[in-house]
Amino acid sequence: MKSPGRPPLLSFARAGVTGLALTLSLGACGGDDKGDTDGDGTIGTDTTVGTEPTAGTDATDATDGTAGTEPTGTDTEDTSAPATTGEEMPADCDAFVSPSDDDVAALQGALLDAADGDIVCMAEGLFELNTEISISANNLTLRGAGREQTILDFSTQDLGANGIKISGDGVTVQNFTVRETPGDGIRGDDVADITFDGVSVEWAAKESLESGAYGFYPVGCTGVVIRNSRVIGARDAGIYVGQSSNILVEDNEAYDNVAGIEIENSTGATLRRNHAYNNTGGILIFNLPGLPVQNGKHTLAYENIVENNNGNNFGIPGTSVAAVPPGVGFMILASDENELRNNTIRGNRTSGVIIVSYNEAIGLEPADDPNFDAFAEGNYIHDNNFSDNGTMPATPVDGVAGVPAPDIQFDGCLNPDAAPMDPAVVNCLWQNGDADYINFDLCGGLANKSTDLEPVTCQHTALPELPAG
Question: Low complexity: which segments have biased composition (predicted)?
Answer without folding.
Answer: 43-74
